[in-house]
Amino acid sequence: MTTAARLVAGTGVPSPLRVLLVDGQELLSRGLRLLLDQEHDIEVVGEAGDGRAAERAVAERLPDVVLLRRGSRAVGEVCRRLKSLLPTTRIVLLTEGAVLSASELAEVTGSAGTDGQVPRDSPVDDVAAVIRAVANRDAA
């Protein structure tokens, strides 16, 4: 069963995708949360301002998808740590502009990689679509 196909116990209704936002800019993170919370099949389960807070939140909240802003050189290390804590969690990188090429993405994330990426200035519909795609194990 894919992450997106989980059902709310006893109802036959799909449970929402659990998303954790990781962005050091609180205003932007909260705005994204408000927009994503309007999606019927997405639930933002928390926000973290940095990698250490993200590690705690992943361990506590068990998100299906982590939306991680590319904000520092340590993003590859953060990806590795998050994947080691919860290997089923999918990671989407929010880029600062255009989508990165495969070589640029490898340079940023190292061997940890990500499951998808989306430019930070994308419409919320595009961000939600990428979240759904990676949750269903489709590359985005």
From TrEMBL:
Where is the Response regulatory domain positioned along the sequence?
18-135
- Which organism does this sequence originate in? Actinopolymorpha rutila
Q: Which GO terms describe its biological process?
A: phosphorelay signal transduction system
Task: Output this protein's name.
Answer: Two-component system NarL family response regulator
- Gene3D superfamilies, alphabetically? 3.40.50.2300
